[in-house]
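Let's practice the habit of predicting before peeking. Look at the sequence and jot down your guess about where helices and strands might fall. Then scroll down.
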Amino acid sequence: MKLSSYKYTFTHTHTIFTHTILITLIVLILLGIWLIYKYSMQQKQPHGFIELFTQSTSTTTANNNNIARLTKYSVVRTPEDTARGYMYRKTPLAFGEGLVFDYGNPVSKSFWMKNTYIPLSILYLDSSHQVIDISHNLKPLDETAITATVPEWRYAVEVSPEFADTINIGTLLLLN
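Done guessing? Here is the structure:
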């Protein structure tokens, strides 16, 4: 074997090895960028919220009972998120989207629209998920206390005013 042929084999092998390392580094960099993007998108959803999706897309009537279903909702899990609600959100809620506050037992609390940039309505539900009161068309940034007209309720659900307009007192709101 001639020396020149050996040099060619060594140089060719070295080039392939260098290209393999470069391709691996590029793939790792792209993977890192994707992971950072994915992590940052998850951080836009406030901690303590759990996204849940249902299959229905509208309010329906069944057996002469008014039944409604949220198409997408989050459940508040921490005291900090309970205090924040939809504060600082600037994109309007989609029809059927909502934020559920489950207090575990019947309560009487008030809400406000401080630092809330989107119009909302609040549905108040009893333990069986039946709507017992509605606060309609709440004004963004209003710091006036918002209370239900009923003495106690277990769930409060923040929804778009358009969705709340399709709901009546007595409607069963499905949260599963």
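How did you do? Residues 42-64 have pLDDT under 50 and may be disordered.
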